[in-house]
Amino acid sequence: LWGSKDKMYEFAQVSVLYLGGSFHLPSHDREMVLMLHLLKLTDTLNTEQGGFEALRDEVVALKKYVSGNWVSSKIQEELLTSLLGHWLIKPCVSYDKIHLRVARYVHLRAEWLHLAIYVTDLVARAVVDRFLRYKIGQMKSTYRKEILASVKDKKKLNDFAHTMLVKYHCPIVPLDPPQYTLAVLAFLRSVATEMLQDGDEKRYWRKVETKLADLHSEDHNGEDCFFTMILSQWELDIIAKDRETISSVTNVNRLQRSTSSAALAPVAEPPTLGAPAIAFAQDMEANTDVLDSSHVPPSFSLYGASAVPHNFPAHTFDSDVQLDSLGDIASTIESAL
User: This protein's superkingdom (predicted)?
Assistant: First the structure.
């Protein structure tokens, strides 16, 4: 400030010239001049703010590239988000480690998804894993709110299933909500109903995991009851209970159709995993707890069995691919993943 003392003195001596002479500018007028300058400066800064923010984002992105870090593209993140959504709508043994399940799928289908870099580059793998962990937290929060809202609004199970399939299911979206999808949503809504009756909407997913653990603890001839429930009476019972207690629907002859169909699907064919890959997926399922805080390690027999090739084509190494261009991606997601 001391360096500007001369300018301050000059401003204090400001005079206004006119034809007959001049007069000293009163202090309140000088304050008005200061105010006008401040307003002009504020307007200029506001105008330039957008440019400053864009420049800042570019600098941050540039620093990441310069430091050697791999950065996922917006389209790649949209693809990963769609995969996370599919695991939310499909039957799962647990919703606690969905990000790990999607990570396994990306590892197995890396070439097809144009994410071969996930297999070969540890930095890229860490970036993808971190995004999956962050994103699934957001999506589960939204999913919980949608479940609770459907119960509060007494939305019909079939209509709710249709909405959720269109939003979360990977292509090809079923024409009619499958029975197991209705059962899964009815199960999730039953947990929400109990919470609302108790006046407690907190820790929803923890209560879901407790219910799932109880469900799996039942003995069904040595088989996992959740994977056999497509043919079980459990599905029919919980769907009927939902329609009785929430939907108030007793006779539904036709389910609402979605906007996607097999006839409209792209023609891209999914790759075949083969027995070694399926065996790996089942082994990973059995060792989920070990991988709770890590990604799928690259040191497994898939490489020796050539289920995933060593030499990825250049265009599949790290490029953008739209989900809709992959054809029937839902059929490539095995129950073991």
Answer: Eukaryota
